[in-house]
Every structure is written in structure tokens, then in C-alpha cells.
Specification:
Helix 4 runs antiparallel to helix 5 and helix 7 runs antiparallel to helix 15 (342-362). Mean pLDDT is 91; it is low at 1-8. This protein is 74% helix and 0% strand. It has 18 helices and no strands. It is globular and about 60 Å long. By secondary structure, the chain is mostly helical. The protein has helices at residues 15-26, 29-41, 45-73, 77-84, 90-122, 132-143, 147-165, 169-194, 199-207, 216-229, 236-241, 250-279, 289-298, 304-336, 342-362, 377-404, 406-410, 424-446. Bound molecules: tryptophan. Tryptophan binds next to helix 1, helix 2, helix 10 and helix 14.
């Protein structure tokens, strides 16, 4: 977010800069850690198809809605609703800030796992050749009460450090270099995974749908993950939109970010799932799936420890750029609306979110028997955020744009989308009816 144009509000210098930053928010643990294990748990190809379907209908519409609200208001989510309309709509902004707290609390726990795995891969994790051992390594690590908490703290501290300084040039430049490296590594690893003996079963699992097994839980999981993966439903993309220069085409930007994010998720599927079957792991293993499978893949490539460490370091960076966007929503609110200085706002919010993450971390170990409706604390936070708060935010954002401020978000002179948008009518109908009705129906049928 570079180059202060006008007053104190920063702006992206180039369209590419914005796309990389917004893609940096979208692409993260959601793509590489969460997508493969959700697909593994929810019928593979069926999940993939539902996910793609939601991304390119509801997802891209809500993405455009958020970017337009952001650029038309030039405000944080709470300020944006207040500025464009006010009244009860401001509550949607508050819900966003709350959702930011919830997501970052468990996201940071997994971010910590990633740092831990960078360290472990560099220090001998791969010295075993027995793939099954990686399962117990992961189990022992997450069930330890202190070690994951330590790394959770490190991840949170890094996020706070970046946000406290202000999201500046440094980050934009770092991402521009590192994300392409991550992409190339992903391609190489996919090739290795796809050529393992037995990989074909994983490919079939990922690409050949068996619709007889579909259930409501899968549909909700796919919808929730479409929101989570695109960073939608809680104002992160509004905040990014508020920094976009007037000339940039919003529909084009929405399409780019959506496509890049989806591409990385699908690649992660082709990396993890074939290897899961090749090594005989259980695709339904849950949140540990990626952390069990990737070391097994690294153990089968030359210089595995080197490439494995590099991969996990890059994944930490990808996770950080996402975590930054979550904390930034909270901090932008505290700075703009509560007039708290950026540094204390970032540190204070970070400390509270760290504390909220502690029970999530412990729920993989000493608190694993503390459950509610069969779910541990981590699962409850994730379910609440991804499958309830984000889709609900999506309904409200769609309705807001479709019914309340459509003229404003279309007005190019005010920072809105502008006249050239050929799909404006269709998009409005999606925002008014299709997205809210579909999301509401899916949420209700889940209960
Ligand atoms: N999309 C990110 C990922 O896939 C996570 C994320 C960042 C997010 N900001 C968000 C999710 C805002 C929901 C809302 O890892």
C-alpha cells in the first residue's frame, strides 16, 4: 500500500500492486492447509465442484460488492456503512470486526504450526523414511501444551509488528518476489506428488464426483470455504478496496483475485490428495492432513529438507499476508473511529486475539475432551466464523449493495464501479435475490 495520495490515506501505486496485495490476503492457509483437508473430509470431487460453483457465482459477486463499497466510501468497514448509509447498517461493520477477532485467533494457531514445521523440517524432521511417522510427529506436536502456544505467540507477534508499522511498500515488494517463488515450488511439488506410485487414486478422488454421497454438511462447508478462501464476508476486501485508485477496473480486479486464489487452492489439492492416497493416509484426517502429507512428499524429493524448509517459510509469508488483512480490519477501525494510535491499537488487539487463540490450541491436546455438540474449541471457532459469520456477512453485504446503495456503488465519479460494466444488471439481481436467498437457504438447511 504505497504512495500517500492526497491526505493521510495510502493508496496502491499500481493495479498489479493491488492485485498482489488482495491476492496476498486471499491466498493463505485457507488454500494450502484448509482446502485439501476439507476436500478430503467432504467427498473430494463433490466438494471441489460445489466450491468452484460458489466461488464464481456468489463469491465473485460479493468480492465486487466489497471492493465497490470500500472504494466508494474510502473507509474501514464500520466507517463505510456509516458513511454510505448509517443507521442499523453500521452493525454489519461491527460484526466484521468481531469476525476478524474470531478468525485470526485460530488462524494464528495454524500459522504457528507452519513456523514450527519450517523449523522442524530444517532440523531433521525428514530423517525418517517411514511416512506413517509423520502422523505421530504431528499428533505429538499439537497435543503438547506449550510448544504450539509458543509458535502461536511468535506468529501473532509477527503479524502485530507488520500492522503496527503500517502496511507499507516493504510488504508489497516482499510479496511481489516471494509469492511467485511459492507458485513455482507448488508446481514442482505437484509434479512429484502426481508421479508417486498410487497417486492416481487421489486424482480420481479429487476429480470424479460421487454425487450419491452428497449431504447438507458438504454444501455448507463448500460455501463457508468459498468465503473464507476469498477473504469475504467481513470487510477485508472493503478495506483493500478503499485503497484502490479511481482508474482501476473493479470487476477486472475482482476476477483476477478470485481466479488466482482458486488456482492456488486447486493446485494444493493436486499436491496433497494424490500424496495422501499414495502414502495410505486417511483423507478425512482433518486439520493435520497437510502437515502430515507434505513432509512425506518432501522426503521423496532430492534436497527435501532444503525445499521443505523453503516451502514452509514461504507458507508462513503467505499466512502472514492473510493474517495482516484480518488484523488490519480491527486496527483500521480502532484508528479511524476510536482515534487510538496505530501501535497501541495493533498491540492491544493482538494480545486479546492471542489469548482467544489459547483454547483453540489446547483443544488439540489437554483440552481435547472439552467439546460442545461433538466439536472442540478450535472447530467451534472455525465453524462459527466460516460457516455462520462470513456467510451472514455475505447476505448483508449483498442486500446492502443490491437494495440500499446500488446507485452509489455504480457511480464512477464517486469511486464506484462506473458505467462500462456490462454485467451490472445481472450483478444487481445476484446481490438482491440470488446470493442472499441461496446463502440463507443453505444456512437454514444446515440447522
Ligand atoms: N483468505 C485467507 C486464506 O485463505 C484467510 C483470510 C484473510 C480471511 N482475511 C480474511 C478469511 C478475511 C475471511 C475473511 O488463508
Amino acid at each position: 500500500m504505497a504512495g500517500a495520495e492526497g491526505k493521510s490515506r495510502g493508496q496502491f501505486t499500481t493495479r498489479l500492486g493491488f492485485i498482489l496485495a488482495a491476492a496476498g490476503s486471499a491466498i493463505g492457509l485457507g488454500n494450502i492447509w484448509k482446502f485439501p483437508y476439507l476436500a478430503g473430509e467432504n467427498g473430494g470431487a463433490v466438494f471441489l465442484i460445489l466450491y468452484l460453483g460458489f466461488i464464481f457465482t456468489i463469491g465473485i459477486s460479493v468480492m465486487l460488492a466489497e471492493l465497490a463499497i470500500g472504494r466508494a466510501s474510502k473507509k474501514n468497514p464500520v466507517g463505510a456503512f456509516a458513511h454510505l448509509k448509517g443507521g442499523k447498517w453500521v452493525a454489519v461493520g461491527f460484526m466484521s470486526v468481531l469476525t476478524g477477532f474470531v478468525i485470526l485467533s485460530f488462524y494464528s494457531v495454524v500459522g504457528g504450526w507452519t513456523i514450527a514445521y519450517a523449523v522442524k523440517t530444517a532440523t531433521g524432521l525428514l530423517s525418517t523414511t517411514d511416512a506413517k511417522a509423520f502422523g505421530s510427529t504431528f499428533g505429538n506436536f499439537v497435543s503438547d501444551p506449550m510448544e504450539p502456544l509458543f509458535y502461536h505467540g511468535v506468529f501473532m507477534a509477527l503479524t502485530v509488528a507488520v500492522v503496527a508499522k503500517g502496511v507499507d511498500n516493504g510488504i508489497e515488494k516482499t510479496c511481489r518476489v516471494l509469492m511467485p517463488v511459492l507458485f513455482v515450488l507448488l508446481v514442482v511439488l505437484c509434479i512429484r506428488s502426481l508421479t508417486l506410485p498410487g497417486a492416481a487414486k487421489g486424482v480420481a478422488f479429487f476429480l470424479e464426483p460421487d454425487f450419491s454421497k452428497i449431504n447438507a454438511g458438504m454444501v455448507i462447508a463448500a460455501l463457508g470455504h468459498a468465503f473464507f478462501s476469498l477473504s469475504l464476508g467481513m470487510g477485508a476486501m472493503m478495506t483493500y478496496g478503499s485503497y484502490l485508485p479511481r482508474q482501476t477496473s473493479l470487476p477486472g480486479a475482482a476476477l483476477w483475485v478470485t481466479s488466482l486464489d482458486t488456482l492456488i487452492a486447486v493446485m494444493a489439492g493436486f499436491l496433497v490428495l494424490p500424496a495422501v492416497f499414495a502414502f495410505g493416509f486417511d483423507p478425512g484426517a482433518g486439520p493435520g492432513l497437510t502437515f502430515i502429507t507434505l513432509p512425506a512428499v518432501f522426503s521423496k524429493i532430492p534436497f527435501g529438507a532444503f525445499f521443505g524448509t523453503l516451502f514452509f517459510v514461504l507458507l508462513v509469508v503467505a499466512a502472514l499476508t492473510s493474517a495482516i488483512s484480518l488484523l488490519e480490519v480491527v486496527v483500521a477501525y480502532l484508528v479511524d473511529e476510536k482515534h487510538i494510535a496505530r501501535r497501541p491499537a495493533a498491540i492491544g488487539a493482538g494480545a486479546v486475539i492471542f489469548a482467544l487463540g489459547i483454547p483453540s490450541s489446547l483443544s488439540f491436546g489437554i483440552w481435547s475432551d472439552v467439546t460442545f455438540l461433538g466439536k472442540g474449541f478450535f472447530d467451534i471457532m472455525d465453524y462459527l466464523a466460516s460457516n455462520v459469520l462470513l456467510p451472514t456477512g455475505g447476505i448483508l453485504i449483498s442486500l446492502f449493495v443490491g437494495w440500499v446503495v446500488f446507485a452509489k456503488v455504480m457511480d464512477g465519479d464517486q469511486g464506484g464501479i462506473g458505467q462500462g460494466f456490462r454485467w451490472a444488471k445481472v450483478w444487481r439481481i445476484v446481490c438482491q435475490y440470488v446470493a442472499p436467498a441461496a446463502i440463507a437457504w443453505i444456512l437454514i438447511s444446515g440447522f
